[in-house]
Amino acid sequence: MVLAWSRARYVEVVRRADVATFIRCHINAFTAFGGLVQRCLSDNAKVVVLGRDSAGEPVWNRVFLDFALRVGCTIQLCAPYRAQTKGRVESGVKYVRGNFWPTAEFTDEADLNGQARTWVETVAHQRVHGTTREQPAERRIHERGHLRPLPSEERLVPFLRDARKVGRDGFVASEGGWYGVPWQWAGQIVPVAPAPNPVTLWAGTQPLVVHPRAMQPGQRLIAPGQWPGLPHATPRPVTPAVAVQRPAVTVETRPLAVYDARGGGAPCSRPSKCASRWSTSG
User: Fold this and answer.
1) Whole-angstrom distance, CA of residue 3 vs CA of residue 229
2) Is the pLDDT of residue 151 over 50?
3) Residue 109: how many other CB atoms lie within 10 Å
4) How far is CA 121 from CA 5, 105, 130, 131, 138, in A?
5) Helix, strand, or coil (residue 116)
6) Mean pLDDT of all residues in the chain?
7) Cα four-point dihedral sign 266, 270, 272, 275
8) Angle, to 10 degrees, between the axis of helix 62-71 and the axis of helix 19-33?
9) Which of 81, 83, 123, 80 has its CA nearest to residue 101?
10) Helices vs strands, H then E, count in the chain
11) pTM > 0.85
12) DSSP 146
């Protein structure tokens, strides 16, 4: 995300590009900028707009539209198939790829994003911008006065957590990992706050379980006290099988001469195939 006037930027690397992650990136960016902007110019991505109706009006992604209305930010769409509409962002992406990414060495997502924040403050914001001829860090000082305060945390909580259903085995799937909760929560919906580390599962306003982030796809992390008190399953009664007496079937065996006679007396060139075919059909 790039602020239009100062050219201050926010960079975050994520594992997924779904609408929940996209909204969290907005919240993180507004927090880093120190306030909320009045208008966001956005691309025509599915996380923002699903398409356009017969009149050419945008069909908004309801979750993202709810977020924009709740925080009070106007969303403006770029012209379709015209990247020049958001040239500040496009050039910023090229700058990140060419200046930050080639030298990045990291151990995990948190380490990478920490390096990205450091690079933004010490490199990207300190350089003299090619268009403004000023440092983004200096222009941002004057721009902060035009930013609005962020909404309260209570208004943002629904967008900071993912609603997940607890499986019958007491695990919740989130970003490739499986996180355990007490077995009593099986089948219920629990909010999950995915973060680089740790991952928190909530019961209302209280943390239910806190796990370290899964380091491998499919890794299962068991919660303390996940299984104690689990009732043993009652064996189902087994119905004894009833033997069914089927009548014996007798298949008549005929010599091949009978089929030769029915075929006009011509001998069969492949008697084994003919016998098999006639026995099956007759």
Assistant:
1) 54
2) yes
3) 17
4) 17, 18, 17, 19, 12
5) helix
6) 87
7) negative
8) 20
9) 123
10) 8, 11
11) no
12) G
* CA 133 – CA 278 distance, rounded (Å): 94
Q: Is the dihedral of CA 96, 97, 99, 104 positive or negative?
A: positive
Domain extent listing, the chain: 19-146, 161-221
Residue 271 — pLDDT band, cuts 50, 70, 90? low
Q: Which two tokens stand for residue 121?
A: 């403050």
Residue whose token pair is 């030769």: 260
The pLDDT value recorded for residue 138 is 94
- Specify the pairing of strand 199-203 against strand 171-174: unpaired
Nearest to 202 by CA among 187, 221, 188, 216: 188
- What pLDDT digit, counting tens, does each position of 155-164 carry? 888 888 888 9
Please determine, looking at this structure, whether the domain spanning 19-146 carries the CATH number 3.30.420.10. Answer: yes
Cα 73 versus chain centre, distance = 24
Q: Strand, helix or coil at 195?
A: coil
Query: Which has more confidence, 234 or 256?
Result: 256
* Total residues belonging to the chain: 282
